[in-house]
Design brief:
Alpha-Beta Plaits, alpha+beta, 72 residues
């Protein structure tokens, strides 16, 4: 897994995780690494090959607290 999306809202990170699980997209919920310096919430870690599906899911859910996308 090599792409990370941090969220300010823990609730939004959990909503995205549940939606990705329903779509059978491999991902992990982790604490946002401090070295990113973007938030203190949760992040979704997933494979870059799933980026289009993740972006579509974020739009479908109307999530607004994501703090960018980072490659590992």
């Amino acid at each position: 897994m090599n792409t990370l999306i941090p969220f300010k809202s823990r609730a939004e990170a959990i909503r995205l995780s549940r939606a990705l699980s329903k779509k059978r997209i491999a991902h992990t919920v982790i604490n946002t690494p401090r070295k990113l310096g973007v938030s203190c919430g949760l992040s979704i870690l997933f494979y870059a090959t799933s980026l289009d599906i993740v972006n579509t899911t974020i739009k479908e859910l109307g999530l607004t607290t994501m703090q960018g996308k980072f490659s590992r």
